[in-house]
C-alpha cells in the first residue's frame, strides 16, 4: 500500500512538472528551429549542429558561439563568449544546492546536464514553496518540467537544420529569442538588486557594443553582477537595526 502511494505521489509530481513545463514549448519550438537554421547557414553540417545542441543544451550560448564563428573570431573568443553567456547556469546551480545538494552524484549530474533557464526558474519557485519535498520527488518533478523542453529542443533543432532554408523570411521565427528571455526573467525581477543588475547589464551592453567579438557583453555581465551584489549588500545593511 505504501509503495502504491509513493508511486502515485511520484506520478503526481512528474505530471505537475509536465504541466508547468508544457507552456514553454511555444517558445522552445521556434527558438530551436531558428538555431537549426542559423547553424546550418553559418556553415555547420547536420551532424555538427546536432552534436553542438546535444552537448551544450543552452540556446543563448549556442547562438553567441555561432555569431562568433560567423564573425571569424578566434577559437578562444568563441569559447570565452559561450562560457560567459553560460555563467548564469552556475548561478542557477548554486540556487538549487539547498534543495538538491544531498542528491546522489548521478542525479546531480543529470540535473546539471539538463538544466536550462526554464527548468531553473520553475524548480526554484516550486522548491521554495515546498522545501521539505523529498529529493527523489524533486528530481521527478524536474524531469517532468524538462520533458516538453529538452527533447523538443533536440527535435526541432533537427527540423530547423533540415528544412530551415525553405522557411519564408517573413515567417518571423526569430521573435522567439527575446520573447523567451523576457518571459523568463521579467517575473524574476523581485528586488531592487535584481532590477539594478538587469538595468546595468542593458546599459553597459549598449555602451560597449563597439567592442569586437562580443567582449562588451562579457564586461557588461561582470559589471551587472557586481552592481547587483553591491545593492544587495547595501539593502541588507539598511535592514540591520
TrEMBL record:
Keywords: Cell membrane, Membrane, Transmembrane, Transmembrane helix, Transport. InterPro entries: Brnchd-chn_aa_trnsp_permease. It is a multi-pass membrane protein. GO terms for biological process: L-valine transmembrane transport. The chain crosses the membrane at residues 20-39, 139-164, 170-186, 217-236. It is found in: Cell membrane. GO terms for cellular component: plasma membrane. Its main location: membrane. Belongs to the AzlC family. This is AzlC family protein. It comes from Maritimibacter alkaliphilus HTCC2654.
Amino acid at each position: 500500500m505504501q509503495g502504491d502511494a509513493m508511486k502515485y505521489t511520484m506520478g503526481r509530481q512528474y505530471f505537475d512538472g509536465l504541466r508547468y513545463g508544457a507552456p514553454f514549448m511555444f517558445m522552445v519550438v521556434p527558438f530551436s528551429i531558428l538555431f537549426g537554421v542559423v547553424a546550418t547557414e553559418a556553415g555547420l553540417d547536420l551532424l555538427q549542429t546536432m552534436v553542438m545542441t546535444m552537448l551544450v543544451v543552452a540556446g543563448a550560448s549556442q547562438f553567441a558561439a555561432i555569431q562568433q564563428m560567423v564573425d571569424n573570431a578566434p577559437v578562444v573568443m568563441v569559447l570565452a563568449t559561450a562560457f560567459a553567456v553560460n555563467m548564469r547556469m552556475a548561478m542557477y546551480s548554486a540556487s538549487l544546492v539547498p534543495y538538491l545538494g544531498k542528491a546522489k552524484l548521478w542525479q546531480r549530474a543529470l540535473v546539471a546536464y539538463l538544466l536550462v533557464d526554464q527548468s531553473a526558474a520553475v524548480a526554484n519557485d516550486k522548491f521554495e514553496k515546498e522545501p521539505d519535498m523529498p529529493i527523489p520527488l524533486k528530481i521527478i518533478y524536474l524531469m517532468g518540467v524538462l520533458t516538453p523542453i529538452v527533447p523538443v529542443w533536440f527535435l526541432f533543432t533537427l527540423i530547423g537544420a533540415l528544412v530551415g532554408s525553405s522557411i519564408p523570411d517573413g515567417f518571423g521565427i526569430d521573435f522567439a529569442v527575446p520573447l523567451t528571455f523576457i518571459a523568463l526573467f521579467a517575473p524574476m525581477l523581485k528586488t531592487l538588486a535584481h532590477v539594478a543588475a538587469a538595468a546595468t547589464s542593458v546599459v553597459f551592453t549598449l555602451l560597449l557594443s563597439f567592442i569586437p567579438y562580443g567582449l562588451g557583453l562579457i564586461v557588461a555581465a561582470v559589471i551587472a553582477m557586481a552592481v547587483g551584489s553591491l545593492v544587495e549588500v547595501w539593502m541588507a545593511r539598511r535592514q540591520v537595526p
